[in-house]
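Students often ask why we bother predicting the structure of a whole assembly rather than each chain alone. The short answer is interfaces. A chain on its own may look different once its partners are present, and contacts between molecules only exist in the joint model. In this exercise we take two input lines together and write out one structure for the complete complex. Read the inputs first and try to guess which parts will touch.
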Amino acid sequence: MSAKELWTRFAAWVNGEAAPAARFEKEYQPKHSPLFRRKPREVSTGQPKTYEVWFYRVSAVLASVALIGILLATVTRLPLHGTPGTPDQNEVAERYVEQGLEETGAVNLVSGMILDYRAFDTFGESCVLFLTAMSVFVLLWNDKHSLPPKLEAERKEDDIILAEEEMHLLRHAAHFLTPFILLFGIYVVVNGHLSPGGGFSGGIIIGSGLIFYATACGQKTVSRFFDRKAFYILNFICLAIYAGAKSYSFFLGANHMENPIPKGIPGAILSGGLILPLNICVGLVVACTMYAFYALFNKGDF
Amino acid sequence: MKEIASLLAQNHILAASVILFGIGFVNLLLQKNLIRKIIGLNIMDTAIFLLLTSFGYIEGRYAPILVSTTDPAQVEQYVNPIPTGLVLTGIVVSVSCTAFMLALTQRLYLRYHTLDIDAILMMVRKGGN
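Now the answer. The structure tokens for the assembled complex follow.
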């Protein structure tokens, strides 16, 4: 195979025009190697026998019951629920509670913990969310090569029905309620270091507000202000800001340098050092990802 | 036997989470429908979250959000914040896994027109599309 042929084949594969060729059929046919001379293992293609099915079911139930029994026996040895002085309440928790406000500036100790002491853990979580959105995108993108035409036709029919039907009550309710839902989500994100909530829960609220609006008014309405490009840009900016800011403060902290980021007065909105911007970044990533899941499962595009 | 029963009754939240875990495991093993398998896995996740949060709980103490910003905080005042943070991580990862599994299931359905795992395996072994 010449180099040019290879290149055209690769280019076609990148463009999604052809599968990566059936080169394995020719090159990997074993002729002289004794390793491959054996026939492939016989696999039964018929229905499994009745006694096999029942053996599997009974052994599965027995294994689960044994597992529950072992775990219940462990539970009887564990410390009682709700009692103080159990081994997991060690000096780490003590330090977080007693020094948390002074060291992180957050009134909500859980926020202070996940976005200051363990900030890189949370960064990993945001990256997991982004990667999952990308994988779902790869699997479900409404590409004309990958989906059967019947499904595409069905989705187009859905669009037409949604455009023609007069759902006054639902649409008016959506127009009225969506701003309040988004506002509440922003409130939860911004107050993450002061009250229960934070980036994850607030992001979920914003995302479900978007999903509600898309259900009532169609995804095209949402894609006027939030499309795929906005998704990429928002996610990239948020993750980059998170990584940069937290790397900077970890670098300063590890080298005993003075931290220029002010902690502020505890209890005020603008306090807690980096916790507020990081909460906003996490909230945006979560909201984008939730809406992306909905859009991809629903229409395969957004 | 009576002692064990009374211990389990006192630790009823942990016992319930363990039993939930077992129910999810049975679902994972016995259901043929892929969506039901995923639901079983989610039940197992929930059981783990219940177990972890109940480890952090201490009777009669406040949630770890400071009551006053001027007084120094006492350990005896608040519950343990660490399991809460761990559960937050767990929920995010569980949501991501569920979405990924459901996307794979949708692709499998589009290709094989069934959600039955046995039927799908049979078609794969026969070498058809």
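Check your guess against this: Residues 82-112 of chain B form the longest helix (31 residues).
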